[in-house]
Amino acid sequence: KVKKGDLFTIGEGKSDIKTNFTPSFQKINLKSSVKIDDGKLSFSVCKKNSQKQLQIKSLNDGIIKNGKGINFPEIKLDTPVLTKKDIKDIKSGIKFDVDWFALSFVRSKNDILAVKKILKDSGRSKPIIAKIEKPEAVKKLASIIQAFDGVLVARGDLGVEMGYEKVPTIQKKITSLCHEYGKPVILATQMLESMIYNDTPTRAEVNDVAVAVNQSCDAVMLSAETSIGKHPIESVKIMSSIISRMESEISNDSNYKGLNPLVVKMDTQISICHSAANIADELDIKLLIAMTESGSSAISISLFRPKARIIAMSPNKGMSKKLSLIWGLETIHVNNFNNTDEMVDMVEKHLRDNKILKKNDQYIMIAGVPVGVSGTTNLIRVETLN
């Protein structure tokens, strides 16, 4: 139990509030503070007893529960990128063949190297998401976004570290930069927070999810709502309903979908995808198929937010799983093919067998020639199902 005005020590060893890592407090200043449990408990820093311990003063009443997160705004910490537990968790993730890894408290583009080394030593390759929740990361957004495979806006810790009033503008900036560099972006934390206890969300939470859709995020993430909440299934259903409704409302806005690319830098592949999205819109074609080895062409076509349904087909099973996170993509694992004729035959068989299209329906396919070479998207075909 904590009362306003109480003095404590925090750190390792004989500290009143013990951390499960060995801290190294390098520098404090007058604005330095300590916040626990997403900022529910706040403390001012009185002094640094040692590099491993601070004396702090409580600014409010509350209860500190075991296992809650700690933030150290305006305190320079010398901490490793990965803790022993992180390393153990990564190895468990490799064992269970997870699709993505997300690295917490990223501070620079080089932080990805520690995770990549463990993956490489295990003979595996997995996409890695940067969780943006530190001021250092916000200062180096462009380089971090380019280095990582995706970004997660961790608004809880970000708000604690930088101030809640700054989160909306930072969220918008991160989303825009992710679009510019063609990287998926996820919004997380307190999307439907009240549903931890209640079976319906607040109006503000509904609007928050809708804003995420309107900003063209690839995904929104539930956390406590489904991990410890009383209404996990209802939370998923309601979030899905909000997303579907919002996307339906904006799907007819030509300024939003199909015409204006989210990505800024154009190259051959992105130009091909832009053309495919425009053709689908102009001819009212309801299906776009991206044949992809690396997944990059499917991600590129997603950036145009076309009205048409997008199916990414890949002989790379791991890639098919990775792409399920990207906006609007349905992924299908297919067998290898040797040439474009085999590719078209295989696609049409799948469309007929699964009743995706009817005879004489049109679809658009983008691919790379020669087939089987990653990153060579240079072909658009408008086909009619026989």
How would you describe this protein?
Strands 2-1-6-5-4-7 form a 6-stranded mixed sheet, with helices on one face. Helix 7 packs across helix 9. The chain has 13 helices and 18 strands. It is α/β, with parallel strands linked by helices and 386 residues long. Helix content is 35%, strand content 22%.
What is the compact description of this entry?
This protein has 386 residues and is α/β, with parallel strands linked by helices. It has helices at 84-95, 112-121, 135-139, 141-147, 155-162, 167-180, 203-214, 224-227, 232-250, 268-282, 296-302, 317-323, 340-353, and strands at residues 7-11, 17-18, 25-27, 33-36, 41-50, 53-58, 70-71, 76-77, 101-103, 128-132, 150-154, 185-188, 219-221, 287-291, 309-314, 329-333, 362-368, 377-384.
